[in-house]
Amino acid sequence: MSKPSQRPRRQEMNGQKQERRRAAEQLRQRQAAQGLRSQPTATIANGKCEWNTVEEERGARQEAVEEQIKVYRAVLPTLLKRLRKIRDPRNPKTTKHQSTVLMLYGILAFVFQMSSRREANRQMTMPMFQENLRLIFPELESLPHQDTVNRLLSGIEVDHIQETLLELIQLFIRRKKFYRYLVSSCYPIAMDGTQKFVRDYCWAEQCLERHVHFKSEEGKIETRPQYYVYVMEANLAFANGMTIPLLSEFLDYTEGDQERNKQDCELKAFKRLAARIKEYFPRLQIMVLLDGLYPNGPVIELCRRYHWQFMIVLQDDSLPTVWEDARGLEKIQQQNHLERKWGNRQQHFQWVNGIQYFYGDNDRKRQTLYLAICRERWEEVDPNTAQIVQKSSRHAWISSEPLNHGNIHERCNLGARHRWGIENCFLVEKCHGYQYEHCFSQNWNAMKGYHFLMRLGHLINILAQNSGCLAGLARRRGLRGLIQFLRETFSGPWLDPERIHALLASPSQLRLE
Q: Cα(206)–Cα(447) distance, rounded to whole angstroms?
């Protein structure tokens, strides 16, 4: 029996696609008439190769690597100087590679997005790859085995690697590299926790423990222990979408209350992370961006003690006394509202100043808060019906500073809403080549060391993707496509040694777009 023809179905699908295109064009015209601007979509080019000859491709690869070298020159002097200060516990008479060479090799493995230690051993030790690396890094006379890097990370103070990243950020702040991305004259820092990986066995005493349900062979629902690694991260989250890794704080089972059988938690880790940020940046103007877990008295009190501004997501079921007080005050502060257009959205802001929040034993402590509510609506094309449909959403934040017509857009749209930058960073590090959820080592200290090296490698790639010609190349090929392009360039005989040596001998400056 013959199969039924698919032609009518194909014609129907093509007709629906044309209807969606016509509806999208009508929507764009309607938005333009209303003064709205459609959000640009980051799509990778679907065309054929942009180069016609081998020489054109060679020139493009050479130019891309030269732009990457400028990032290395902006980062490596501070990086290597700080890494040399980390004490090497190995016997100097039996070591072949210096500790700085080993850690630089570990960073480059994440820069080129090697998925594991085995892949780094296979790919980066190929003769052509090593020759091209030595053009830029003469200290890499030979590449060690990744097991050597693992043994080094098992014995050193790996927190010093993270301090290296902090010194790089301090250098860029002093040079005002991020000055034009500030929000209310503050550096926006988003903090959030995420799970790194899970095991069914306790491979280190620092692992957190939980019990999960599963169905046994007899069909009964039972529980079993599960051991996982959880990390509290802090990132600079700028309004242009650039998210810079800053600090990591690992949750540790030994940090919990053993007598009361309470494990380490995200709120405890937040306090430790905040203390470290304050220690490294004591006078930096900071705006903390937090999600709905954090609107509580101790967190707000801590931010005020550190003289930090904050924008914290306030959910409908959080701080009921704040919502109650806001409903009473909004009847008095009726002038506190603003209508504005942002992108393709019509926004209505409403805010309430001077809310008194009481907490602690017998409500002895008090904080003054400011509540911002954003209701917005927009139109989009329904992919199923090809009709233009209305969408709406509502957001609420508590602010550390009084709100007014002049700062509500900056604090909410450019600050608070870009807390998603850290969520996007988690997605990139987990799913787009940085192997965030890979263990790399069964030694807890070395596992943390690889994590810090990964964050350094990610930082270098972020700076490269937002600088010079690489920014345009990243838009055309995508971020992972750009890294693959650079990795393929290092794997083949594409580079001109004379041009590389001339570039290394000439002055250069990192310029971010």
A: 12
